[in-house]
Design a protein that fits this description.
Layout lengths: L2 E4 L5 H12 L3 H4 L10 H6 L3 E5 L3 E10 L2 E9 L8
Antiparallel strand pairs: 1-2, 2-3, 3-4
């Protein structure tokens, strides 16, 4: 079962690693690092903007923030794991 929780400081390195692996495939296509690879995840975690999906390790994350009357969903990424029996 997947649980959702707010990220804390000790999660920053793993969130950054998931983003690196998820977006690195796009570097050759666009000729530079996509913005989520260099995002300030430590700051986003400190501001309470990062939610984790875990079961029990970190499976993915979402970064969102409130801007006025709107919620901006900035980044959603997950870690690919082999399925049982696959």
């Amino acid at each position: 079962m997947v649980a959702l929780r707010k990220a804390v400081g000790r999660d920053v390195a793993e969130v950054r690693g998931i983003a690196e692996r998820a977006f690195e495939v796009h570097v050759p296509e666009i000729g530079r690092r996509p913005a989520p690879m260099d995002a300030d995840y430590a700051g986003a975690v400190a501001r309470g903007e990062v939610i984790l999906a875990s079961s029990p390790g970190i499976d993915g994350f979402a970064v969102s923030r409130v801007e006025g009357a709107r919620v901006l969903l900035e980044t959603v990424r997950y870690r690919r794991r082999p399925r049982d029996g696959a």
